[in-house]
Amino acid sequence: MATQGNTVHKDFENAKAEVKAAAEEIKEDARSTVDHVRGEAERIAQQQANAARQRVADEVGSLGGALRKAARDLQDGTIQEQAMSRVADGIADLSDNIATADLRQGVDELAGYARRQPVAFLGAAALLGFAGARFLKASDNTAPNADTLSEDWPEYS
After folding, report:
1. Which member of 10, 44, 98, 157 has the lowest number of beta carbons within 10 Å of its beta carbon?
2. pTM, whole model, 2 decimals?
3. Distance between CA 143 and CA 61 in Å, rounded?
4. What does the DSSP assignment read for 45-106?
């Protein structure tokens, strides 16, 4: 009877060791999968951040080009022309920095630019704000007009 008890105990210990080994293998597989998914998520996030950074750089570059065109349209040598040219140059530099820097470095560059060129930075911020407001206003299709109101309300005579 004692040998049967020892056999059962050994079988139990063997099963316990097998379960523990299987659990360790599953744990290691899960850890490997998590590391792979994390790496893939970081890669995708980096791609999206790079694409967004390039779009922002393109938009800022377009703004700089528009400001240069506006400066050329002004009378040469006037204060307005000089200020507009200065803002356009600063925005062009900012666009180049955005396109070539990583996100953290870009934020640091933007803060440094704001400290070095506060007038140009504030001018660019105001212009971006006006452009954004204009864009939002132009894309607002939900505003009711006379045609949609007349369709929604029946006429009472």
Report:
1. 157
2. 0.48
3. 32
4. HHHHHHHHHHHHHHHHHHHHHHHHHHHHHSPTT-HHHHHHHHHHHHHHHHHHHHHHS-HHHH
